[in-house]
Every structure is written in C-alpha cells, then in structure tokens.
Amino acid sequence: MKPNEALSRQLAEVRDQIDAIDARLLALLNQRAACAQRVGAIKAEHGEADVIYRPEREAQVLRRIREMNRGPLSDEGVVRFFREIMSACLSLERPLGVAFLGPLGTFSESAAVKHFGHAARLFPQDSIDRIFRVVEARHADYAVVPTENSTEGAIGRVMDLLMTTPLRICGEVLMRIQQHLLSRETALEKITKVYSHAQSLAQCHEWLSRMLPQAQRISVGSNAQAAQMAAGGEAGAAAIAGDAAAERYGLPRLAENIEDEPNNTTRFLVLGHQDAGVSGRDKTSLIMSAPNRTGSLVDLLMPFTEHGVSMTRLESRPARHTLWEYVFYVDIDGHRQDANVTQALTALEQRAAYLRVLGSYPAALY
C-alpha cells in the first residue's frame, strides 16, 4: 500500500469514529433538552413556571462536570461547553433577558455571555443606573454589573446603587481583562488620540506613558463606544478595548495585552429578583454600618471570628445620609443558610447600626 493510501485509510477510520460519536452526542443533547423541558413542565404544575434559572443548580452541575473531566479538554473549555448546553436548554422554556453596560462589544457583554451563554437575550444599556432600573422594572430578568477591578478597585456607583436596590445578588463572574490598542492606523507613530473608558485608561497608564506619551487620552462611556469612535475614520484615532470590541467593530490590534498588571481581573455581580439556594461553595455579601463610637468596627467583625466565618472583602464607602460616617461592604465565605453564617449574622444584627444582606450566591468557577 502506498504511503498516501495508508494515510487516507487511517484518517477515514478516525473520521468515521468522529461521525459516529457526533451522532451519539446529538442524540444525547436532544435527550437532555427533553429532560430540561420536563423540568419546566413540572415547575409549571407546581406554580413555579417563572423560576427558570437556578444559579445554585447550574453551579453544582458545572462543578461536577469539572471534577469528572479527565482531559484532554481543559477544565475551562469543558465548563464553557456545558454552560452553552444549559443556556440552550433554558431557552426552550424562555430565553433569559440580561441587562449590561453597552454598547455591544464591552467586557460587560463578555461577562454576561460567560455566565448565561449565547442563548440569553442581551439588553445593552447606556449607564449603570439604567441597568438597575431595567431589571427592577422586570424589563429584563438579570443584571450583570462590574463591582471591582483588581487594579483600580471598587466601582463606586455600583456600590451606591446596591444600598437602595431591591435586587438580590445571585451570582458572580470573574473576567480576565486583556486590553488591546485598536486602530485602523498602521503604526504607533500615527496615533494622536486614544479613546477608552476611564478605568481602562488607568489600567494602561504606564504603557501609554511609555509608548504614546504625546497622544491625547479621552475618556468615554465604555470601551465599545471607544472602538466605535476609532472605527469611524478619524485620523490618528485609537481605542483601548478587548477582543469582543475588536471583532464586532472590525478593528485591527495595533498592540496586544497592554494592561499594566498581567493578572488584571474585573469582578461582576449578577443581580436578580430571587435568592440563590445553597450550592456547596458560596459567598454572602452584606452592607453594615457601625455605631459612631470607639472600637465599634472591631465589635462588628467579632461575630465572624467567633463563628468561624472567613471574611474575603471589607470595603468602606461614605454614608450618603450622614456627613463623615461610613458603611462597610463585606463579602464572607458561605451561604446565609449555613449554620455558622446564620449564627454570625444573628450576632451581627444585634451590634450593627445598619445591616442588609445583599445575597448569598455560588462562588465563581473560574
């Protein structure tokens, strides 16, 4: 047998196996979808037809899939694949509406798709305030909002709105932020203006100072808006944005990964109208304020120590109603239904001048 004939025969055998596996996969996927439809019918029979998305159930499924994975596919790749399967199955009941900071092409859009999959209906909004209002009015089911960046810290407006919104935190998304310089220009020397969101300009401050010291830095409402402007044909214009914006607006990458911190990550919160149940690896977020006396903050933190609750975040913010007083945003490990967390919150309620639990929710998978 000639070498090329042997190669063709071997490839044909493997491709036949792939075709057979694909057929079985398709049958199993449709079988899974039928089961998802049955779940919807059962919920409708018991008056829970509106409860389509259960974050704790999804987190449990994805964690189990990740633990079962033996490769060669990566854990992240497998989780993303199954996220899309669940997204498609959920859409058979009703596609979920997700509001986020637009326009299309932002990191917020990427975070929304990462969490809800491509079958979700996306509703880009022009401001953080508008995102909250749209979901509060039930014109969309969920909000995805940035809450903090590993380089630039907390997003103040989101923290302020969490004080007053009736929405509950039911999930979180961690997005590795890779910033690129996008432009139709062909060389850095031709760049005279750089458009981007203020946070992105700050995240790339050192690179811009070193590589484009003469270029004007112009803050706009979002990275996607910056990409739109750079794509508009203005001479010398560039934008700092991510892969989604580059692809959506057809902008070449003049320089890649220009963020100053290599592990630059933004945390997004998922907000909705329902609480998330216990998933087995959860977080709880709350807001509290201390009485205005010496040692009061230490007193507030003691219940966490006494009941073995790990605190992962403590952020202060000026109280909007009283001059020179502060509220504290706290993240702790565990669900509010966990015994030790319940005990800590009960003790905290007796000591705090103000306490509000924003929600318990599954910790981000990756």
TrEMBL record:
Q: Outline the extent of the ACT domain.
A: 285-362
Major place of localization? cytoplasm
- Function, as annotated: Catalyzes the Claisen rearrangement of chorismate to prephenate and the decarboxylation/dehydration of prephenate to phenylpyruvate.
Pathway given in the UniProt record: Metabolic intermediate biosynthesis; prephenate biosynthesis; prephenate from chorismate: step 1/1; Amino-acid biosynthesis; L-phenylalanine biosynthesis; phenylpyruvate from prephenate: step 1/1
Q: Does the keyword Repeat apply?
A: no
CDD domains from the xrefs? ACT_CM-PDT, PBP2_PDT_1
Among NCBIfam families, the record links this protein to: CM_P2, PRK11898.1
Report what the protein is called: Bifunctional chorismate mutase/prephenate dehydratase
| Gene3D superfamilies for the chain | 3.30.70.260, Chorismate mutase (1.20.59.10), Periplasmic binding protein-like II (3.40.190.10)
- Identify the EC number(s): 4.2.1.51, 5.4.99.5
Using the record's annotation, list all stretches that form the Chorismate mutase domain.
5-97
Coiled-coil annotation reads: 4-31
Q: Which InterPro entries match?
A: ACT-like_dom_sf, ACT_dom, Chor_mutase/pphenate_deHydtase, Chorismate_II_sf, CM_dom_sf, CM_II_prokaryot, G/b/e-P-prot_chorismate_mutase, Preph_deHydtase
Which keywords annotate this record? Amino-acid biosynthesis, Aromatic amino acid biosynthesis, Coiled coil, Cytoplasm, Isomerase, Lyase, Multifunctional enzyme, Phenylalanine biosynthesis
